[in-house]
From TrEMBL:
Family the UniProt entry places it in: Belongs to the sulfatase family.
Gene Ontology MF: a single term: metal ion binding
Signal peptide start-end: 1-23
EC number: 3.1.6.1
Annotated protein name in UniProt: Arylsulfatase
Domain of life according to the entry: Bacteria
Key words of the record: Calcium, Hydrolase, Metal-binding, Signal
Keyword Signal: yes
């Protein structure tokens, strides 16, 4: 046997021996389910003190898992938080700093999403819900071009929950890159597609991203008839839905309950397939809820927080967050550490055994892994966190928070003693104020383009 043949045989044997190890390594990776509500308030769930909607499935998730009390969306509005979630970066890096219009380019070409990372580790990846990070047909910023094997849902959002038509009269319901006229209430359809995705993944780990449309307007409850048709342009004033303003809180409660039902379907599927011991489920919201909007009052509950969606007070960006993994996370726990949406990507990378991207490059991470917190109840090193949308800004360091609303003077709050942000301490704590404003200036010099 000549030397070349010996080398060839040795290579074949080595591959045969190594392949099962690699396959076994991939098979042992945890499944990851990330469920994100839209505009859900901090106080909308029973497990966070909510009194209006019934949320038994999410309450059970909290009872069987970990409830995070100081978890924050990266922004007080939609697209920026989604950009931060999928990239692990402050949204200022990608330029997605406000809710994107239909004509916006979306994520830049150099962005790398959580789905792309996990796919490289052997995961099957699926997204069912609202994308809102770019909708141009020629752009790379579409789900199937950013690492997702399967997509069903809305590219942009704000659609009629029944006809799935946006306010410009266009069908915005897609199966991968094909528009589909699929009958059904959007929240139900997304849960059903998510369940089918899980059922079809038996041999490889999966990453399921379920960014629900609920409870964003148009506010429509199950059983409502569609009020938009393809080909008709709708006045901007109709974007909130078919219900009178005084009925909106009741409708939103029904939407929350249907969202909870959908979470229950996903959880029932995981239990039925006996996947719970190797599956991490995280539930959160993209920002706080509306308090008042377009004549409707008490739309959602952010209690006991001040403010709501768009604003820089806690009600705009402190959101519910639950983590569930029966074999790894103790039941009924509560964690008070300060965390952000951008921390979820590095968390997933650690669970998948992937290295962090190089610091200083276009994909450098700003978030930190939450694995030590979630699985070992270890503390997070103190850090200074930042929010900015236009001329609204906030800074958080420990219990201290600075809020700047438009052209108003900067405010300072101690969230440990004043969670409702009622007592402005700016004149009483000048050193804290000065240090945090200096930190904001440094951060802006690095991140604001």
């Amino acid at each position: 046997m000549n030397r070349q043949l010996i080398c060839a045989v040795a290579c074949v044997v080595a591959i045969a021996l190594l392949s099962p190890v690699v396959a076994n390594d991939v098979a042992s990776l945890p499944n990851i389910v990330l469920i994100v509500a839209d505009d859900l308030g901090y106080g909308d769930l029973g497990c966070y003190g909510g009194q209006r909607a019934r949320t038994p499935h999410l309450d059970r998730l909290a009872q069987e898992g970990l409830r995070l009390t100081d978890f924050h969306a990266n922004a007080a509005s939609c697209s920026p938080t989604r950009a931060a979630l999928l990239t692990g970066q402050y949204q200022q890096r990608s330029g997605v700093v406000e809710a994107l219009s239909e004509r916006s380019p979306g994520l830049p070409d150099e962005a790398r999403t959580i789905a792309e990372y996990l796919k490289s580790a052997g995961y099957d990846t699926g997204i069912f819900g609202k994308w809102h990070l770019g909708s141009k047909p020629e752009s790379r910023a579409l789900p199937n071009r950013q690492g997702f094997d399967v997509f069903c849902g809305a590219r942009h959002g704000g659609i009629d929950y029944v006809s799935h038509v946006d306010r410009y009269g266009r069908l915005d319901w897609w199966h991968d890159e094909k528009p589909v006229d699929e009958a059904g209430y959007a929240t139900d359809l997304l849960a059903e597609h998510a369940v089918r995705f899980i059922e079809g993944r038996r041999t490889r780990p999966f990453f399921l991203y379920l960014p629900h449309l609920a409870v964003h307007f148009p506010w429509m409850e199950p059983g409502d008839e569609s009020y938009r048709e393809v080909g008709k342009n709708y006045d901007d004033r109709t974007k909130t839905g078919p219900h009178a303003p005084e009925n909106v809180p009741r409708v939103v409660d029904k939407m929350v309950e249907r969202l909870d039902d959908g979470v229950g379907k996903v959880m029932d599927c995981l239990r039925r397939l006996k996947l719970e011991r190797n599956t991490l489920v995280i539930f959160t919201s993209d920002n706080g809820g509306y308090v008042h909007y377009a004549g409707a009052k008490n739309v959602s509950s952010n209690a006991p927080l001040r403010g709501g969606k768009i604003g820089m007070y806690e009600g705009g960006h402190r959101v519910p967050c639950l983590a569930w993994w029966p074999s790894k996370i103790a039941a009924g726990g509560v964690n008070y550490a300060t965390m952000m949406t951008m921390d979820l990507l590095p968390t997933c990378l650690e669970l998948a055994g992937l290295p962090l991207p190089p610091a200083g490059g276009p994909t450098a991470l700003d978030g930190v892994s939450l694995v030590p917190v979630l699985l070992r109840d270890e503390p997070i090193a103190e850090r200074t966190l930042f929010w900015q949308t236009g001329d609204m800004k906030a800074v958080r360091r420990g219990p201290w928070k600075v809020v700047i609303q438009h052209d108003q003077p900067a405010e300072l709050y101690n969230l440990t003693t004043d969670l409702g942000e009622r007592k402005n301490l700016a004149s009483h704590e000048p050193k804290h104020m000065r240090d945090m404003l200096t930190a904001l200036e440094v951060w802006q010099s690095q991140f604001i383009k």
